[in-house]
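Q: what sequence does this backbone want?
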């Protein structure tokens, strides 16, 4: 039985794992389209570094990278929890429906 994969849940969890394993002190390629177009200011730039610094316990550097880093991490974790609950409930409903169908088939004359 193949289950439908929740791509958004996988994306958020993978992103946080990557930020946890990343060294925030290194400069690397930016995925920011605004920064890649040559603009010097982007309101979201620094969030990844801020979250990475949080994971490594550097709270002051996190705040210096982006003041909303803690808030962004809270929002992402809340979204992951919501998606996990939804996925679990949806999975339980599918299992119960399958069990009901199998039980109904067993009682047919």
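A:
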């Amino acid at each position: 039985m193949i289950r439908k994969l929740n791509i958004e849940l996988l994306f958020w969890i993978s992103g946080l794992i990557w930020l946890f394993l990343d060294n925030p002190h290194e400069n690397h390629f930016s995925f920011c389209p605004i920064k890649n177009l040559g603009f010097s200011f982007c309101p979201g730039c620094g969030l990844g570094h801020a979250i990475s610094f949080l994971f490594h316990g550097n709270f002051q550097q996190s705040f210096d990278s982006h003041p909303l880093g803690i808030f962004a991490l809270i929002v992402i974790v809340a979204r992951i929890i919501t998606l996990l609950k939804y996925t679990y409930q949806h999975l339980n409903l599918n299992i119960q429906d399958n069990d009901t169908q199998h039980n109904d088939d067993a009682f047919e004359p």
